[in-house]
Specification:
Oligomer: single chain
CATH architecture of the largest domain: Sandwich
Strand content: 35-45%
Largest sheet: 8 strands, mixed
Number of domains: 3
Shape: globular
Number of strands: 36
Mean pLDDT: 92
Distance between the termini: 82 Å
Number of helices: 11
Radius of gyration: 30 Å
Helix content: 10-25%
Structural class: alpha+beta
Length: 656
């Protein structure tokens, strides 16, 4: 990828000599010597940001194009928690950047100004990573004080897609973003989630100047079942054109596809082809006619034998080295998968997308900051695989990478000429019926002691619920495996006496094919109480603790789940002889929201009485991950329905 970056950078630098420049903007920037910030703030917030200014400038220094990044924050602190969290304020910069300016001061409640000297601007180092940090050390801050600081970082320019987030959990006033570039470099900008758009300053002659201004940005608080980071107000920008040579498409999908294909789909030498075939021969391929089986076995082998390093090293991207030493970088392991798929003739497409919790892929704004995560797509089977996440398996990629757009890159061969073709498409979420957590529970009373129950539990899981167990259980120590199996009972009653247990379908090759199952029976006195001639059976607690949602404030953010899912629960209660259940109607709960005749979210519990056996069903479905905020109450009712069921206590009375 380095060569790709340098080839583009050449077009940025080749004509800088014809571009006139003033000195960088930050040279003339400073804070107010006599500050007059508007200190009227919202009293229910301990932290109020009175000013947030960001200035970015691209600037030619000799043969180099550099980026100067300035950030200025003025923060009023009105609580002990706010003061504690701002005793140290870190300056964000990487090892390849340098801090040119850093200034900070405290303005007390009685307007006294205390400027931090150099001894309070410190540097520390992470002993494990070697990463160096610079930070302001504020002391003696009292409630009502203001901290005022800014810094300038000089770094390599990020021009193919950059995101700046302005909204936070604190309210902000006087927010601004200024962007300067030489007159030959034209950028484009897009704002999200209500942030004002950046507009060009038509009066600027010496350099391009775009500006975004917001007098107030409301605080955005985190909410359950939401994509909080993706919902903040932010701006994305990228270089669009070099006006001197009319070079365009620096971050277009067509250019990106071309570069990605060149990097990931090279022609292999004779030696590399031999190493690829040798690597394949080590994989236990049990059915050479079934490509889905082969894909699963390739993935399992790579994820259990090849170490993926998070360091950047050209050797870890070299396919020959990877095939020899079984160690690769994230991009290197992608190359490894591709080499095997190409050799075995497995149709696939390389997908670049983003984590929708952090940043939703914008299909209309072509920038590389939306291309942060990688999947493989197999069009013959309509399934995905994550090459980088070792805890995932074929058919169940990281769920937050689904229900999102992505750039699909596939290799095409036209009359012997191979190339890559890219297209933006939607990555469908895995259906709810493919991810379930089902329970069949049998409850019997001890004839000699009605406070004790013998409970038989069959719990079966598939999809995302089985993914972190079924492929890996065979690797666990015997005692750890025993503890895991026991936990299915212990999670309901920590003092449960385990009577019998059996694990079904724990073969890792069965993941995605057959559900993982645990059969366990145990004795417990946690669910039954007796008062006089009445028996109280805590039937709802048998499904385990459930999430509750109480909403005192108005819901702001849309609903967003990680993955679609289903819970099917059957509880068979053997009613003791001489007793009857007097509150059967408490079992009946029904809340749902339907779209086009199908329940999108639902909880429905009901019963059937067959002589002395009470059969209870409690079924819960979530068939849509993302729902508009206008449907929040419908969603909340379903979530709380499970919690309501969890509280049901059956009352059994003597009929003697």
């Amino acid at each position: 990828m380095t060569k790709i970056k340098f080839s583009i950078l050449f077009f940025l630098l080749a004509f800088q000599s014809v571009v006139a420049q003033d000195e960088p903007f930050y040279k003339s920037y400073s804070w107010e010597e006599e500050p007059s910030y508007n200190t009227e703030v919202e009293t229910n917030f301990g932290t109020n940001i009175l000013k947030h200014a960001i200035v970015t400038e691209f600037y030619y220094e000799g043969d180099n194009l550099v980026e100067y990044f300035l950030e200025h924050l003025v923060i009023k602190l009105d609580s002990d928690d706010a003061i504690e969290s701002h005793n140290k304020v870190y300056i964000p910069f990487s090892s390849s950047a340098e801090v040119d300016i850093s200034k900070a001061r405290v303005i007390t409640a009685n307007k006294e100004i205390r400027v931090l000297d150099d001894s309070k601007i410190l540097t520390s180092e992470d002993q494990e990573t070697g990463q160096r940090y610079k930070y302001f050390a504020f002391e003696g801050i009292e409630k009502g004080s203001i901290i005022d600081y800014y810094y300038v970082v000089k770094k390599h320019p990020a021009y193919k897609g950059k995101r700046l987030t302005f909204q936070s959990t604190s309210p902000k006033k006087n927010v601004s973003f200024d962007f300067f570039s030489p007159k030959n470099l034209a950028f484009v900008f897009k704002s999200y989630n209500g942030l004002p758009e950046a507009k060009i300053d038509t009066l600027s002659d010496a350099k391009f100047h775009w500006k975004m201004v917001a007098d107030n940005i409301e605080a955005l608080e985190e909410e359950m079942f939401s994509a909080y980071n993706a919902s903040k107000g932010f701006i994305v920008y990228k270089l669009n054109k070099n006006l001197v040579n009319n070079n365009i498409g620096f971050a277009s999908h067509s250019t990106t596809t071309k570069n990605l294909y060149a990097f990931y789909y090279p022609e292999y030498s004779k030696k590399v082809n031999e190493l690829i075939n040798k690597f394949i021969s080590k994989i236990d391929i049990t059915d050479k006619e079934n490509f889905e089986t082969i894909i699963r076995e390739i993935e399992s082998y790579i994820k259990t034998t090849v170490y993926i390093s998070d360091t950047s090293d050209d050797a870890l991207e070299n396919l020959e080295q990877i095939l020899t030493k079984d160690i690769a970088s994230e991009s290197g392991v992608i190359k490894l998968y591709i080499s095997i798929f190409r050799t075995l003739g497995i149709k696939h497409e390389l997908v670049f997308t983003s984590n929708r919790q952090d940043l939703k892929f914008d299909k209309d704004f072509e920038a590389i900051n939306f291309l942060t995560d990688v999947l493989f797509y197999f069009p013959d089977f309509k399934m995905y695989l994550s090459p980088e996440e070792i805890d995932t398996r074929y058919g169940y990629p990281p769920a937050y990478l689904t229900d999102n757009y992505g750039l699909f890159v596939k290799e095409v061969n036209l009359s012997g000429f191979k190339s890559g073709v890219g297209k933006v498409r939607y990555i469908d979420a895995i259906k709810a019926e493919n991810t379930f957590d089902n329970m069949i529970i049998n409850v019997e009373f001890d004839k000699d002691d009605l406070t004790e129950n013998v409970i038989g539990l069959n719990r079966s899981m598939s999809g995302y619920y089985a993914m972190y167990v079924q492929p890996f259980l065979h690797l666990a120590k015997k005692e750890d495996k025993e503890d895991l199996v026991d936990s299915f009972a212990k999670s309901l009653d920590n003092n449960a006496e385990i009577l019998e247990k059996k694990v079904i379908n724990d073969d890792p090759k069965l993941f995605g094919i057959k559900p993982f199952e645990v059969n366990i029976s145990f004795k417990s006195d946690a669910f039954t109480e007796i008062a006089g001639e009445k028996i109280f059976l805590k039937i709802g607690e048998l499904i385990g603790q459930q999430t509750q949602m109480y909403q005192e404030k108005k819901r702001i953010l849309p609903i967003e789940n990680e993955f679609n899912r289903a819970y099917l629960r059957t509880i068979n209660v053997h009613i003791p002889e001489g007793y009857k259940v007097v509150n059967l109607e408490d079992i009946n709960i029904s809340n749902s929201y339907a779209l086009n005749g199908q329940d999108i979210v639902s909880f429905k519990s009901f019963y059937e009485l067959d002589n002395n056996i009470l059969k209870i069903k409690a079924n819960e479905h979530y068939r849509k991950n993302i729902m508009d905020v206008s449907l929040f109450e419908e969603f909340r009712k379903v979530i709380n329905s499970a919690a309501d069921f969890n509280k049901i206590i059956l009352v059994l009375e003597s009929i003697k």
